[in-house]
Write a structure and sequence with these properties.
This protein has 128 residues and is mainly alpha-helical. It has helices at residues 3-27, 30-33, 35-61, 67-96, 102-127.
């Protein structure tokens, strides 16, 4: 798959999940819709954020790389998009259930940093 196809498909998926998120925001009432509407909101928000951060990460650093390095860059962008969006959705959920504090955000950020360091060390071992 070429870079333009990858970014195009990723952008299309992000656009579709963004449209779904807007639809849910304007048409679902969380007090009347129950758990399904809340679950739908968090799911579409997560998909949108993963696509958005992955697209930005892919476009930002994927300049003049060889094919092997390019696929590593795709994987790294996807991983970082998953971690960032997971942290954002988790913090929004913690805010909704009144558990959002400096302590919990320190734990979430520390967990994201720890996971990224573990993945970077794993990538460095595979390159050798």
């Amino acid at each position: 798959m070429t870079v333009s196809k990858y970014v195009g498909m990723l952008s299309l998926g992000t656009l579709i999940s963004g449209i779904g998120l807007i639809f849910i925001l304007f048409n679902f009432n969380p007090t009347e819709g129950g758990p399904l509407s809340i679950y739908s909101f968090y799911t579409t928000l997560g998909f949108f954020l993963v696509g958005f951060f992955t697209t930005i990460g892919t476009i930002w650093g994927g300049g003049e790389l060889s094919e092997k390095d390019l696929y590593r860059h795709f994987a790294r962008s996807l991983r970082q998009g998953l971690l960032l969006s997971g942290a954002m959705v988790l913090s929004l959920y913690l805010l909704a259930v009144d558990l959002f504090s400096l302590f919990t955000m320190t734990i979430v950020i520390s967990l994201v940093i720890f996971l990224e360091v573990v993945f970077l060390l794993s990538d460095a071992r595979q390159e050798k």
